[in-house]
From TrEMBL:
Subunit structure: Homodimer.
Family, similarity comment: Belongs to the class-I pyridoxal-phosphate-dependent aminotransferase family.
Protein's recorded name: Tyrosine aminotransferase
Cofactor(s) the record lists: pyridoxal 5'-phosphate
Key words, A-Z: Aminotransferase, Phenylalanine catabolism, Pyridoxal phosphate, Transferase, Tyrosine catabolism
PANTHER family, A to Z: TYROSINE AMINOTRANSFERASE
Length: 469
């Protein structure tokens, strides 16, 4: 064979495999043993001298910014005042926002049927996927069962969407301020996160010019959160169309986080971004957690809107393969899903929206007159961001504090009110308020925040001059 032949050298009863090239034998490191005249690869003899078990790079690279900040805070409430937590995006905490009886009955029926105790397909039961497709399908963005992947909560939907679209070394565009999980997931996978700015003075619309400037050849996905956590903003149809134009111009697919879909206050309208897209492919992530007030049930989904078959079979197959890592979402909730979607009365949704809007107005009106603070009225979701008119909490007016983390920490110490510092969303000198608490608790919390700010507020020299004039 052109001067190349294999050879075997026996050393101490073992055989080294070699390849002879032009009369010379080059041995590799693989050892062989002779058994009854036949040669078999020998097991490498390696033994660790001591225990050394280390976490993986993915584990080391996984960091939740909220936990990193909150766990480092010294949260010692004032013993004379009961604690009011306005920090957790869980509408069930205070028991004032129960889910509807029809939702509970659907779960009871699913359990009693005993049809949903086994494994389901990793992407979910076909009937359950069809129910989600029917619920969200519209003429502008039609859906079939094959376009739906059921997941363990919206968080897993986001995880799968990022995982299927991105490779290590790619980058994704993420809103700032924005939900911290995007960065947590991406960085753990070796994906770079590029933050595009939202504009508080424009009700948190995207700074489109800044967003577009971040796109390069390694940008694999644009994340759009609408309605927004942490801002409570709702993008108009016109703004969504402008976002789509940028994505289309640069051929970047969109990951739409729409977990707060339809949780929009009267006077605002929130079409799904997929219903407006003519060419941009979109993975829309949603779930039961917020609108149906059952975050612990861990039921989410990905809706595949494949404009012009750009995703094709590969992205779909990729999502199927990734879903097989944990063998799918809870089967009991899947069994109840069709009934939940079809039988929850509209009055339940309306009452939830009415409560959230009322609480938001209370918070906005109360804090609007607090020295040094300027709340930004939300249009949906469950949150309200607080800032000054331009740059956030003006620390010149609050010289007792170094930053928003210090500010919110002391608010707990003195007033037993916990708001989440917006540094957790990489947006310093703001803080986020969750508006799901009972109304009387919201009024009490705002009163305590007012008292706290009045105690620590210091007018600037410019303010003093204005008063003198």
């Amino acid at each position: 064979m052109n001067g190349v032949k294999t050879g075997k050298t026996i050393v101490n009863g073992q055989c080294l495999n070699g390849t002879e090239v032009n009369g010379k034998v080059a041995h590799d490191t693989k050892l062989y043993v002779s058994v009854n005249g036949s040669l078999y690869p020998a097991k490498a003899k390696s033994r660790r001298q001591r225990w050394e078990v280390k976490p993986s790079e993915m584990a080391n690279n996984t960091l939740n910014p909220i936990r990193a900040i909150v766990d480092g805070m010294k949260l010692t409430p004032n013993q004379d005042k009961p604690m009011i937590s306005l920090s957790i995006g869980d509408p069930t905490v205070f028991g004032n926002l129960p889910t509807d009886d029809a939702v509970l009955q659907a779960m009871k029926d699913a359990i009693d049927s005993q049809k949903f105790n086994g494994y389901a397909p990793s992407v979910g039961y076909l009937k359950s996927r069809q129910a989600v497709a029917n619920f969200y399908s519209c003429p502008e963005a039609p859906l079939e069962a094959e376009d739906v992947i059921l997941t363990s909560g919206c968080s897993q939907a986001i995880d799968l969407a990022i995982s299927v679209l991105c490779n290590p070394g790619d980058n994704i565009l993420v809103p700032c301020p924005g939900f911290s999980l995007y960065k947590t997931l991406a960085v753990s996978m070796g994906i770079q996160v590029k933050l595009y700015n939202l504009l508080p003075e424009k009700s948190w619309e995207i700074n489109l010019q800044h967003m577009e400037s971040l796109i390069d050849e390694r940008t694999s996905c644009l994340i759009v959160t609408n309605p927004s956590n942490p801002c409570g903003s709702v993008f108009s149809k016109e703004h969504l169309l402008k976002i789509l134009k940028v994505a289309s111009r640069h051929c970047v697919p969109i990951l739409a986080d729409e977990i707060y879909n339809n949780m929009v206050f009267p006077g605002s309208h929130c079409p799904s971004i997929a219903s407006l897209s003519s060419d941009v492919p979109i993975l829309s992530c949603g779930g039961l957690a917020k609108r149906w007030l059952v975050p612990g049930w861990r039921m989410g989904w990905i809706l595949i809107h494949d404009r012009n078959e750009i995703f094709g079979s590969e992205i779909r197959q990729g999502l199927v393969k990734l879903s097989q890592r944990i063998l799918g979402a809870c089967t009991i909730v899947q069994g109840a899903l069709e009934s939940i979607l079809n039988n929850t009365p509209q009055s339940f949704y309306n009452n939830t929206i009415c409560f959230l809007k009322c609480n938001s107005e209370i918070c906005f009106n109360e804090l609007s007159t607090v020295p040094g603070l300027c709340p930004i009225m939300p249009s949906g979701a469950m949150y309200l961001m607080v800032s000054t008119k331009t740059v956030g909490i003006d620390m010149d007016h609050f010289p007792d504090f170094k930053n928003d983390v210090d500010f919110t920490e002391r608010l707990v110490t003195e007033q037993s009110v916990f708001c989440l510092p917006a540094s957790a969303f990489e947006y310093p000198n703001f803080f986020r308020i969750v508006v799901t608490v009972p109304e009387e608790m919201m009024v009490e919390a705002c009163g305590r925040i007012r008292e706290f700010c009045q105690r620590h507020y210091r007018p600037s020299s410019r303010d003093s001059n204005d008063l003198d004039q």
